[in-house]
Write a structure and sequence with these properties.
Blueprint lengths: L4 H16 L7 H8 L1 H6 L21 H6 L16 H6 L20 E3 L15 E4 L1 E4 L3 E10 L4 E4 L5 E6 L6 E2 L4 E6 L1 H32 L5 H28 L3 H5 L12 E5 L4 E6 L6 E2 L6 E4 L3 E9 L3 H10 L3 E6 L2 E17 L5 E9 L10 E7 L7 E6 L4 E3 L2 E9 L2 E13 L2 E6 L6 E5 L1 H8 L11
Antiparallel strand pairs: 1-21, 2-23, 3-18, 4-13, 4-17, 5-12, 6-8, 6-11, 7-10, 8-9, 10-12, 13-16, 14-15, 14-17, 15-16, 18-22, 19-20, 20-21, 21-22
Helix pairs in contact: 6-7
């Protein structure tokens, strides 16, 4: 058989794997006698088109010529698995005139695999295939993850001036707790001084023209003044009142309050001298401080970071396989989250999941989720790592018929497992799966408690029963 070196190596590797599982269909009498003594004694090794001369060499993936040469088997179809009961399968015979399940060339068509005892996992860690009895299991009601705490950005504020000025004084230090409205620092600003001067001028003119308008109205009513004088006085007053409102609005934009404007005429207030008090918009703690008295602060520069730490965010990454049960839990209602940290190993903090990422990280193949966690005692700190437990089942753990995820295989949308039949034989069994629970998957139909299934190494068995779809064939 002509093959380049690379194809020969791949073929030899595939043959070695199939030899270990005694899953072969073209090894010839000599190789079959080593791994399948029952078949050899029954005469399956005779030359029925499989080719005795080919048994001495590793078999490469079949070429078109090789497949035609092997195509003399009558009824030796590929992938046409008949739906037989175990009783019928045990009595059925193949074209080699032996029980079909004992024929290494034919049994894969019926989903039967023979696993040598040497391949089963042992206590010393050897073996490739592991089995487990199916039982009703109390599946884990929580999804574990590792998380990192961060500020609740909906309860944090960067304190920055709206105008440039000199930091005249700083009233708080890092770690200070403040209430909403407390003065944090004071700026001396030329720009504010000009805006205040405009406001004072417009207020004076508005007060004066209002008095003129009132006087002209009185004179007109006493038949002393004219209507024209009243109209002119009213227009002047309306103009200055509009200017006053505009300058007042400008001061509000710069950060002054109505209380500041109301107290401008008081010498102790200080606003009239161009001093701008910067106040806390929310209650919280000063966790960053970048303001020093005497420095020039540009408009928009972050001087303080104020945060309400009674709640924190916890960010965690979950594996893509855990996304389905998490979304199912989210549809049922609020998803509770429990947090533990190494600093307080005996404490548990609770919260609620409020965000599941809409995209997946291309490098880690994980989805980011976020929970808001109560922190009334201020023990938790942004930046802490934590263990996250996401409740994906309401209440206590649920008892279901479940198998490990590694036991469940799929073929064109059909889920199946390999069930132990007898002796060294396993048979494919189609099942209907239910919900995913971390490393377990619920089986709704197709299995019964007490049956034994392959949990680790099921893919090796799948590669044999689906050998034709996976690039092999009976010429292998």
């Amino acid at each position: 058989m002509k093959m380049n070196a690379r194809r020969w190596t791949m073929a030899a590797g595939l043959c070695a794997l199939l030899t270990g599982l005694t899953m072969t269909s073209g090894y010839g009498k000599e190789q079959a006698a080593k791994t399948l003594p029952q078949a050899a004694e029954a005469g399956c090794g005779k030359d029925d088109g499989c080719g005795k001369d080919k048994a001495a060499e590793p078999v490469a993936p079949a070429t078109e010529e090789g497949h035609e040469e092997h195509g003399d088997h009558d009824g030796h179809g590929h992938g046409s698995s008949a739906a037989l009961s175990l009783e019928d399968l045990e009595s059925a015979k193949c074209e080699h005139d032996i029980p079909t399940y004992q024929c290494a060339e034919c049994r894969y068509e019926f989903g039967v695999v023979k696993v040598d005892a040497s391949l089963l996992k042992r206590a010393d860690g050897g073996g490739l295939v592991q089995t487990q009895a199916v039982v009703r299991t109390a599946v884990s009601a929580t999804l574990p993850a590792t998380g990192e705490m961060a500020l609740n950005e909906n309860a944090a504020v960067h304190i920055s001036p709206r105008i440039a000025g000199i930091v005249e004084s700083v009233s708080v230090d890092i770690g200070a707790h403040v209430k909403a409205g407390d003065t944090l620092l004071t700026l001396a600003s030329v720009e504010l001084g000009k805006a205040l001067a405009d406001y004072e001028r417009n207020r004076t003119l508005s007060d004066l023209t209002e008095k003129v308008f009132a006087r002209e109205t009185k004179l007109r009513d006493e038949k002393v003044g004219s209507e024209q004088d009243v109209i002119e006085a009213q227009m002047t007053f309306e103009q200055h009142r509009t200017d006053l409102k505009a300058s007042e609005q400008m001061l509000h934009v710069l950060g002054l309050t109505d209380e500041d404007l109301a107290g401008m005429r008081e010498p102790a207030h200080g606003v009239g001298a161009g001093r701008l008090p910067v106040r806390a918009p929310i209650a919280g703690m000063i966790i960053e401080k970048h303001a020093v008295a005497g420095e020039m602060a540009e408009a928009g520069k972050d001087l303080l970071l104020l945060a309400d730490l009674t709640t924190v965010w916890v960010w965690a990454n979950i594996q893509s396989r855990d996304l389905a049960p998490l979304l199912q839990a989210e549809k049922r209602g609020p998803v509770a989250v429990a947090i533990t940290v190494s600093a307080f190993p005996d404490r548990q903090f609770t919260g609620e999941l409020d965000y599941v990422g809409a995209t997946m990280n291309e490098q880690t193949r994980t989805v980011k989720v976020r929970a808001t966690v109560a922190n009334s005692g201020m023990e938790l700190r942004p930046g802490m790592f934590c263990d996250v437990s996401i409740a994906i089942v309401n209440g206590q753990a649920e008892e279901v018929l479940a198998v490990p995820r590694g036991a469940l295989m799929t073929d064109e949308g059909t889920s199946f497992v390999f069930v132990h039949w007898k002796d060294d034989f396993f048979v494919r069994r189609d099942v209907r799966r239910g919900r995913y629970f971390l490393d377990m998957v619920e089986i709704i139909e197709g299995l019964q408690a007490g049956e034994t299934v392959v949990t680790d190494g099921a893919f090796l068995l799948k590669s044999d029963v689906l050998r034709e779809k996976m690039g092999a064939g009976c010429a292998d």
